[in-house]
Design a protein that fits this description.
By secondary structure, the protein is of the alpha+beta class. The chain is built from 2 helices and 3 strands; from the N terminus they run αβββα.
């Protein structure tokens, strides 16, 4: 019975670590750029856009399509970076359980 109690305590500790990691993820930010820094987008948490910076040189008539492409590329760059940081937080929280597929629990990277 001691083994079961120890296992339950480990599961509770891991659950707390995962909750802490999720809280950190909600506050994590990442910045993506495109066009050599002409467009910058900042993301927070699961991908919420918090800021968009556009170089004045792109604010000329006829540059709309280029600007749109640069915004999409900057967002993709920021999202990739945010996902990398969030994955690292979850792997750290999961510890030795990372990569295991335990029935009834979310996949732990």
């Amino acid at each position: 019975m001691k083994d079961l109690n120890a296992l339950m305590q480990q599961a509770q500790a891991m659950q707390q670590k995962l909750q802490d990691a999720q809280a950190k993820m909600a506050e994590t930010t990442a910045e993506g750029t495109s066009g050599g820094g002409l467009v910058t987008i900042a993301l927070k948490g699961p991908g919420e856009i918090t800021a968009v910076k556009i170089d004045d040189s792109l604010m000329t008539p006829g540059e709309g399509e280029i600007l749109a492409d640069l915004i999409v590329a900057a967002h993709a760059d920021a999202k990739r970076k945010l996902d990398e940081v969030n994955s690292a937080l979850m792997r750290e929280a999961a510890g030795p359980m990372a990569g295991m597929n335990i029935p009834g629990m979310p996949k732990l990277f």
